[in-house]
């Protein structure tokens, strides 16, 4: 889509994100999740564990993968100053953000959403409602989480963005959203769980939102974060360049 995505930016982003042994870092949690699912399938005496484990551990891995990926597609260039060279080109800021965002979503799908489905397929079968629901929820989560973490990196420097992202995942989503009514309204995890539960129909997924609210809030949060990332990226002024 000319004007929306830029092939050169996407290739450079993919090369940078997959370099420095990062592919191994991305793959290890996915392998661990699949291994846990296989082990529990072989040893667990109850069939109640798949939604509990995969809905909690699996979506935590999804969030952490998106945090690393979503931060790295822009953060590395901000750290080493090469972002200024990119902004000096005639490529629109919006195109840069969307191109990097698309790569981040694709990598998160590959290293977190697909393994989540594979773990669910091992646990309950490839065509089970739970496996399919977990996949659909993880795809939605990949879209939403990366928008949030890309925005944080654009607004803040990569270090603080990583710290705040971890607090958001572990404190806001991991604790407060489960204990305080209404907090789930601003939780990407609960958007993902609600979307997953609309297919899986499992109360063990602990989705505290209905499907309509989850989809609506997911769209609003994603669009707002990408718009804010574009605005903040335009603040990186390059002499002689019009943002």
Describe this structure in words.
There is one protein chain. The chain is built from 9 helices and no strands. By secondary structure, it is an all-alpha fold. Helix 1 packs across helix 5. The longest helix has 32 residues, at 49-80. The radius of gyration is 18 Å and the shape is globular. It starts with 6 loop residues before the first helix and ends in a 10-residue tail after the last helix. The relative contact order is 0.14.
Question: Gyration radius, to the nearest Å?
Answer: 18 Å
Number of domains: 1
Tell me roughly what share of residues is in helical segments: over 70%
Quote the average pLDDT.
89
N to C succession of SSEs = HHHHHHHHH
Q: Which residues sit in consecutive blocks of at least 5 with pLDDT less than 50?
A: 238-243
- Given the structure, what is the number of helices? 9
The proportion of strand residues reads: under 5%
Tally of strands: 0
- Shape, please? globular
Terminal Cα span = 21 Å
The major β-sheet equals: none
Q: Which structural class is indicated by helix and strand composition?
A: mainly alpha
